Amino acid sequence: MKPIRTLLVDDSPEFLKSVARFLAAQSRVDVIGQAHSASEALEIVPRLQPDLVLMDLRLPGLNGLEAAGRLKASVQPPRVVILTLHDHPEYRRAAAEANADGFIGKTDLATQLLPLIERLFA
Fold first, then answer.
1. What's the confidence (pLDDT) of residue 63?
2. Helix (H, G, I), strand (E, B) or coil at 50
3. Whole-model pTM?
4. Which CATH number do you get for residue 36?
């Protein structure tokens, strides 16, 4: 089975390291890059062509919801999952309106991310 090419987007280097380490143990997921802002992610997605973008909601400058909307409007969009410490119903609604493929609170990442990835790429 082909690995899921994944781009991580978060302004916290510690969080990026932690998620990359968590995903490294998954044979189905291949972390192909990291970005520290939504703008940086939008620049590198066309070059890297990830299957999945895991993006923080709150980022400096352009936020994750705006970037998700732009990514999902592209010709061959990756799947986009919004990650956040701020798991509120209004943010979930906004993520759905941006056509994000998923929304996970960072505190639930270890239990919810892999099942979501399995559903998205089944």
1. 95
2. coil
3. 0.95
4. 3.40.50.2300
